[in-house]
Known about the structure:
Number of helices: 6
Strand content: 15-25%
Number of strands: 14
Amino acid sequence: MAVFAVLAAASSATVLLRGSVGEAAPIPLGTPIPGEDGVPTPSADSGSFPASSTTMTSPPVTVPLPPPIPMTPTSIPAAVPPVDPAALPALGWGDRGEHVQLVQDRLTAMGFRPSDDNGRYWAGTASAVLAFQKFEGLDRSGEVDTVTWQHLFSPVGYLPPQQPALVPKVEVDLERQVLFVLNAEHPGQVTILNTSTGGEYYYTNKDGSSDYAFTPEGSFHVYRRYNGVEEAPLGTLYRPLYFHRGWAVHGSPSVPAYPASHGCVRLSNDDQNWLWDRAPDSMEVVVRATMNPETIRLQQLQEFMDSYGSAPPMPV
C-alpha cells in the first residue's frame, strides 16, 4: 500500500518551466515542453501552438569591409596642349612670360617642383626642367626645346613600382638620376626632383687613402638628420638626412645633369628644404639601379626562381 501511495503522489506532481521561480507556472508531469525535441513553440500573438513547426534563422550579419589601401600611380597622364608644341618658343634661363608660366604649370601638374616666381625662368624652373628631361630620357639641357614641349604634354617616363601609398618615402633612380618623394603631403602623391649621385670614380682622401665614389643600392632608413650646414670629410652637406653610414640625401649648390658626388644623393638646397620639412624620422630610402618596369619584372622573376627553383605558374 505504501508503494502505491508514492506512485500516486508522483503522478500528480508538477514541475516548473525554465525561468525564475517567481514567474514560472506549474506544469503537470508529462506535458511536452515547447522548443525541445521538436515540440512547436507557441505563437507570439496568440500564445497557442502553431499548426506546424518552422525553422527560425537569424538574419545575416553584415561585416563592413575595410577601406581599400591607396596605391601609388604608375604613370603620368597626358594633357591636351593649347597649341601645336612645334609652334611654341624655345625657353631658357632668364626668359619670362606666359610660355614660361605654361611650362611651370605643366611641370607642377606632373609632380615636378619649379619653385621660381610665376612666369620667370630661374634656377627652380631650370632644375625642374632638367629633372623632367632625365625622367623622360631626353637630352639634359635644362632648357625647353621642341622635343621637350612635346613630352611635357605626352610624357612617357615611368614612375617607381606601384606600392601601398601609406607613409612618406624616397626612391632614387640611379640610371636616370632622379629622386622620387612618395606620399609627402597626401597618399599617392609623387614629387620628382633632380639629383646627382655617386660619380663612379676613384678619389683620394685627406689621409692619402683611395676610395671609390658610388651610391649603394638597397633599402635603408634615415637614422640621423642634421638641421644646418655640416662639414664632412668629403665636403659640405646642407641639412643632411643620413640613411647608410656616411651616405646622405643633402642639399648642395651643385646638382649637375650627371652623377658627380662622392656617393651622397644631392638635391638643390631649395628641394632639400622642401624634403626636410616633410621627411619623418626613420623615413625609408630605396636606391635602385633602374626603375625600368621590364627590368624589374625580370629581376623579380629571377628572385622567385632562385627561391623556389621554377618560374611562378602562369595565370589561367
